[in-house]
Here is the input.
Amino acid sequence: MGDFMDEITKDLEKKLKSNDKVVVATSGGPDSMALLSLVCDIKDKINITIICAHVNHKMRIESEDEKIMVEEYCKKRNIIFEYMEILEYSEDNFHNDARKKRYQFFETLIHKYKANYLFTAHHADDLAETILMRMMRGSTLKGYAGFPKVQDRNGYKIVRPFIIKSKEEIDAYCDNKNIPYAIDGSNQKDTYTRNRFRKYIIPALKEETNNFYSQMYKFSKTLLEYDSFLEELTEDKIKEVYKNKEIFIDKIRREKKLIQKRLIQKILEDIYKEDLLKIDNSHVDSILGMIYNLKPNMEIDLPNEITIQKHYDKIIFEEKKQTQEYKIEIKEKTILPDESIIQMISSVEENSNFICRLNKSDVSLPLYVRNKKDGDKMNVKNMKGNKKIKKIFIENKIDSNKRKLYPVVVDSEDKIVWIPGLKKSQFDKPKEEKCDIILKYTLKGEKNE
Here is the structure.
C-alpha cells in the first residue's frame, strides 16, 4: 500500500505548490474518500487550500448519512466543506443530467475560491469502462480515448490522480488506512450499461492479460496524441469553413476526408460543449452525407432540439422551432410574422413580382395571407396548368427554413392569387388594364413608401 500512496503523492507534490487551491469532487465512495485523504496528507506538507465538493443527488435514502460522514471527515481534517442538493432533473438521461449539474457546481466553487485545480477520483476501471462503452456506441477520436490524466479547462485543470490505479487497489488502500466510505448499491444493478461492463466485460478482459489497465491507459494516451496532432492541423482551417453556426460546403469539400471529419467534430464541440456525450460518429457521418448529397435542401435532427439545414452552399445549425402557422386577413397594412409587409395602395408604376393587381370580380373577398400548405398549387401567369408552390420556392432558391413562414396570398376560397416577390397568378392584371385592388410587398428592413 505504501507504493500506491508514494507514487501518487510524489506526482502531486511535483504538481502542487504553496497557496494552490484544490477542489476535490467527493461523493463519499471509497474512490473519492481515498483521494480526499491523500490530498489532506499532502496539505500537511504543502500549504494548499482544499475545498471538498459533495453533491447529494437525492436518489437514495442513504445519501443523507453520506453527507454527514463526508462533512464530519472534513471537520476532522480541517478543510472546507461545500454541499449541493440536486432537487430535480430536466433530462430523461439521469446520469447525463446529474453529471452536468455536478460539474456546474464544481465550476461555481472553482470561481468562488479562485481554485487552480479540480481533482476527481476517476480510476483505471472507470477509464477502461468508458473506452469500451464508447467503442460499442460510437464516438469521436477524443471520445474513444476516454479521458486524460490532466485536462485544461477554462482557467483551471482537471486532475485524475488515480487514472492508472485499479478500483481493487483503491478499496484495499481505504481499508488499510481505515478511511471511512459509503457503498452505493445502485452500482451493482445490471440495468445500467456501465455496471454490466464493470461486472462482466472488464473481469473477462483482465483474464486475457496481466497488464490490462496499463494497456488501456497507453491506448488512451495514443489516441489523445493523435487527436492533439489533428487539432493542430485543423486549428486554422476551422475559421475558413465555419462561421456563425454555418458550414461553407464548397470550402470544406476541398479538404481530405479525415480533415473534414475532424472539422465537423470541432464544430459539434462548439455547438454542444458540455453535452458532447450526446454526439457520436453517426452524427458526423450524417453531416458528411449532407455535404456530398446532390439535393440542394435537406434537414436533419440532432440531439437537444437542434436541426442541421442544408441550403444550397451552406449547412446551418439552428435550434429547433415549432413552425408558426398563420392566416391573416389582408387590410390596408398587414405586418407578417417575418416582419415583411403587404400593403394596399392606390397606384404604382412598378410591375415587378412585388406588385399584384387584382379585380374584385375575379376573386372571393376578403383576401388572406398564410403559410404554404402541403400540395399548394398556383396557376402561374402566362403559363398553362398549375405549378406547385414548393417547385416555385426551389426554382427561386428560397431556403427551406424561410419557406415555413413565406407568405402565400389567397382569396376566401383558398385559391392562391400571388406569391409575393416570386410569382403572379392568372388573376394578376397588367398595369394598363382596370383593377380595383393593388397590393405591394415589402421585405423586412426595406422602405415602405
About this structure: Residues 6 and 12 are 10 Å apart (CA to CA). The chain has three domains: 2-222, 235-319, 327-442. The longest strand covers residues 49-56. The chain has 15 helices and 22 strands.
